[in-house]
Amino acid sequence: MTTLATKKESKALIERLNVFTAFALGAIAAIVVWRLALAFLPADSELAPLFTREDKITLLSMIAWFIGFMTGIGALIAPFRWVQGKDLTHEENMFYAGKDMGIKRYFRYTTDHKVVGIQYLVITMVIFGIGGILAMLIRTNLGKAGGGWIHPQAYNSIVGTHGIIMIVGTIIMVTGPFGNYIMPIMIGARDMAFPRLNALSFWLIVAAAIPLIWAQFIGGISTGWSAYNPLAGQAPLGMDGYIMFICIFAISTMVAGANITTTVVRMRARGMTWNRTPIFIYGVVASVALALPAFPVFFLSQVMSGMDRALGTSFYNTALGGSGWLYENLFWIMGHPEVYVILIPAVAALMEMAPVFTRRPLFSFNVAVMGIAGISGLSILVWAHHMYMSGWAPLLSAPFMLTTELISIPTGMLFLVLVGTLWRGRLWMTVPALSIFALLWNFMIGGITGIYLSDVPADAFLHGSMFVTAHFHYTLMGAGLTGAIASLIYWFPKMTGKMLNKRLSWIAFWLTQIGFNVAFMGMFFVGLQGQPRRVEAYANIFSKGNLITTIGAYTIMIGMLVLLHAVISSWRDGVKAPMNPWQAKTLEWTVANPVPLENFEVLPTVTSDAYGYGKASS
Amino acid sequence: MMSDLRSPEQDYFKGKWWKRKDVKQVIVLWIIFTGLIGYFSSKFQVIAMGNPASETMENVIHLITVFTWASSPVAGFVAALAVEALIQKRHHGDNPPPEADHNISSSPRATATWLVISALLCLFALVVGLIALQKDDQALLDKNAIHINVTGQQWAWNYDYPGSTGVRSHVLHLPVDQPVVFHVTSKDVKHSFWVVQMGIKIDANPGYVTQTVVTPNEIGTFDIRCAELCGLLHAYMQNKVIVESKADYQKWLASQPDTGHTTWKAEGAIA
Amino acid sequence: MERKVFGALGTVIIGIAVIAGIGTYVAAAKNDPGITQATPAGSFTAEDGKSYPQVKLNLNVYPNSGFGGHHGAGGGAHPDWVSYALGGPNGEILADAKSGTNFQVPPHTAVTITVYQYDSGETLNNDFFAHVRGTVGGTAKFVKSYDTKAKANASPETVITNIPADMVGHTFTLHGMSDGKDQLFVSVPLMMSIDEEVGAAEEGATESGYVQNPTKTTFTFITGDEGEYVWNCEFPCGDGTIARFGNAMSAMGYMSGHFIVKA
């Protein structure tokens, strides 16, 4: 145990704070504030807005939980020192970095980017596990026409919770584990620009999770993940949990975004010009660069929703001068860039893997960068295609149709890069390599169905139907999750020192991909037949398609459970991995397993890009 | 990184490149896949969407089919290249295969061709969409249209027929071959008025009145479903629209009791 | 290698068991898990002369859930929420009823529902629902004041097609999915208990604390083919600002329930 030769009080304090003290302090704070609020808040009356007292109590205790948790995990120690006019000592920084701490460092406010990366990996898996369980409940209920297995209000809440959990999971699934663990090594740095902010961004997610879980017991999230007002105004107390969750998660995302951007801009190794920066880095930076303007808007939209619920304001209440359309605009200004936040790192990761598994250079790095930049830039201009049918501004349908259809051009560039890298390569049959093919298939379907939806007259038929649900699952899950799982298999040796069991990952890959396509093709069919989305029961004509979807979903579940087993068993006693099992050329493969605390003995100098495969022509 | 003009890729495409084995294979696969993808996708879509009950829906089906066939060559090309990569020698095992015998890292020609074609396809989709959109906008101004007020509320639709003597109903009745403009609002939360087989949809917003228009051209019974999650019983917020001959429609209107027109004002409507 | 595959199989089985367990728990957590079958009651002749078998249902609408019934002795999780419930043939409280908002009736049958309404009311926000719709003859039988102690009408029975839109207590609105050709839709407004009676709760009240004289509304409708419908009240009195469909109105088992037409 490192001893800290500083003041006795804070020495003891830093060493004592961990996730358990955080939960304890958070719970105590929440209960104390709850009792105080219950006792002292005035009752609802004709003068004060009706039905707001319980919302006030709920929100106040959730805020107290948040402050208690963050204090208990130790997030305030460094700021407190700074207010005192000093900073942490070198020994304290080493303690924070988890030096010589063994497994305890994963349960503390540890700043080492590798620890944060593993923490993100575990929490992502937990998030997908819970979201997946909810998906199984949904599909089981929808297995037959009358519904009725799960009653309507529980069902609506399961759908809403599944949605927001999966959105959060897919946002962090590549940038969290691999953006944190791998990215600094890949650019030749010792850690990220702001290590303490790195720990902060992770623990904020843990803090945010509790209000979301709490919400399930106080009425659930009955509005779908988009939480439209005015429906959210009449939703039960669980909605306040959603609001709190989003506010905290938004802060986490913004913090991570600032950290990643600064790291990549300022801390690349000597000689790593932008031309020699791996494409994965571009993907991660573009993703967080999009999140940085988008999430504050989401944050504000939820704050206003909370104010309408708890304080009786009328931001979204038309009868009192506000507008439900305001909410829709604010939500989708975040909502559309957000899907590219999800997609770009996954595609960029596959573009990073493509040369490794075809042993030839990436087909046109410049086109890949242009594609990523084009998608990022355009994605800020397309949001109202989610609102074609809302009646908000019919005159704006055409301009938004234009910008939305334009996005297909930079997206096509990413396809060009991937198929171009496959062409005339020496294909190494591994799951990451096959994932490229799976991505091409799934993303082609997702992308083209997106073109149907971007067309206003076609959207008049398709909006709000299961067609939309199938479209976004094809893009976010079929493309995004495929890239994330490939990233897991690819970088598993570096992060855990073990190879992920090959046979199990093949089984998981095929079960998941086949199950996925069966499930969501069935969903396209019932969407085209006319089934609305977010319904707990449906008319008989939709039975066949739904049954097929449910069977596909069960297949995905089995594939995912196999993958889970592979991860856990390989992590514990899998085949030990060599330093560079894939013979790849990026910097992370030049460090030993396990990666030393400070990554590099000597910071590397880079003299070329990482795609120097193949023979130069004579 | 920027390839020079005399890149190895250009050497690859010297001479009768279309006669090279792998290029020929790609072209054959391309044609096959384009056909398969286009045919089966559009068949799937047309079967699912069923019989249209208005020209608007016929246009939707047509539009989706056209987009499917227009994007099939792109999908087919990607599929052809991917399959071509798969049918070359595949390497298995724990060690990577030897590196490729070339180091082509870009192709300005391929990039330019791809960009131009995707831009043209994009332009095509845009123009087709704009024309269809224009037609729908014009229809809203049709002087021959009848007007019907649609109120959405948790969790049932109800309809008010302004031209009649206080007729209101739960099941929508419409005369065939007559344009109808729907004025839609909500009494509580957001709903979405979707006349499925007629291919029209517009959200019902509290405090606003929105419009959409359609001309039913088939006699029969069709479905109206709510397409925006509106609470507990959203799944059950569905009812029928009965399209009948003009004479039958008048007969039905006359037979309905006079319940007085709804004191129908969108709550807090903005002038 | 084989050990790993067996291990994976084990994880799959455990995973399925966990999901099934969670699912069963969630599915069972219903406010009103039971279904009440309507009571057979002879036959009914419609206006066109056709004869249908007849079934009867008696419902009560209470201003809170203190009556017990399907909410349990303490009134359940929300004893202050308005609730519909199964009632006796003379408007009695059935405190032991196991279900109270889910009903099942046979197809092609005349269903006669009698509702004793114990709650107060206000103005509807859409007077569409102040009219009687979907019943035989488009009418309902209405008694403004029914004496539950004496088990008799305390005011004359009238035939109504609508009630004043500002005196609505609740509605019984039955609707469902578009499936077969027959689509049932019934909506009957249930007038509020008149104010003097609500105020007199302390003097002449029944033991439960509810007013002695609820309103009584009786209506009959004919079911078509089999189908799954829902019914809910269309008078918004729940949480929310303009859209007051929160709280009790958004929870099955209080002011909404399933209505299954099945042989």
Provide a short characterization of the protein structure:
The complex is a heterotrimer of chains A (about 625), B (about 270) and C (about 260). Chain B is of the alpha+beta class.
Helix proportion of chain C:
10-25%
Going by CATH, what is the homologous superfamily of the largest domain in chain C? Answer: Cupredoxins -  blue copper proteins
* Low-pLDDT regions of chain B: 1-6, 267-271
The global form of chain B is elongated
The coarse overall form of chain C would be: globular
H/I helix tally of chain C: 3
Strand content of chain C: 25-35%
What is the tally of beta strands of chain C? 15
Output mean pLDDT of chain B. Answer: 87
Distance between the termini of chain B: 60 Å
* Helix share bin of chain B: 40-55%
Structure classification of chain C: alpha+beta
Order of helices and strands of chain B: HHHHEEEEEEEEEEH
* Radius of gyration of chain B (Å): 28 Å
H/E topology pattern of chain C: HEEEEEEEEEEEEHHEEE
Determine the CATH topology of the largest domain in chain C: Immunoglobulin-like
Question: In total, how many domains does the architecture of chain B comprise?
Answer: 2
What is the CATH architecture assignment of the largest domain in chain C? Sandwich
Number of strands of chain B: 10
Features:
heterotrimer, A: 618 residues, mainly alpha, Cytochrome C Oxidase, Chain A, 66% helix, globular, C: alpha+beta, Immunoglobulin-like, 7-stranded mixed sheet, 6-stranded mixed sheet, 3 helices, 15 strands
List the helices and strands and how they pair.
The complex is a heterotrimer of chains A (618), B (271) and C (263).
Chain A: H1 8-16, H2 19-40, H3 53-73, H4 77-83, H5 90-96, H6 113-141, H7 152-175, H8 177-186, H9 195-217, H10 238-266, H11 279-311, H12 324-358, H13 365-379, H14 397-406, H15 408-422, H16 431-454, H17 456-462, H18 466-496, H19 502-529, H20 543-573
Helix pairs in contact in A: 2-3, 3-9, 3-10, 3-11, 6-7, 6-8, 6-9, 6-20, 7-8, 7-12, 9-10, 10-11, 11-12, 11-13, 12-13, 12-15, 12-16, 12-18, 13-15, 15-16, 16-18, 16-19, 18-19, 19-20
Chain B: H1 8-12, H2 21-49, H3 55-87, H4 108-139, E1 146-153, E2 156-161, E3 167-169, E4 172-175, E5 180-186, E6 191-195, E7 200-204, E8 210-214, E9 220-226, E10 238-244, H5 246-255
Parallel strand pairs in B: 1-5, 4-10
Antiparallel strand pairs in B: 1-2, 2-3, 5-8, 6-7, 6-9, 9-10
Helix pairs in contact in B: 2-3, 3-4
Chain C: H1 2-28, E1 36-37, E2 39-45, E3 51-62, E4 83-86, E5 103-105, E6 110-117, E7 140-143, E8 146-147, E9 152-153, E10 157-160, E11 168-176, E12 186-191, H2 195-199, H3 201-204, E13 215-222, E14 227-232, E15 256-261
Parallel strand pairs in C: 1-5, 3-6, 5-15
Antiparallel strand pairs in C: 2-3, 3-4, 6-13, 7-10, 7-13, 8-9, 11-12, 11-14, 14-15
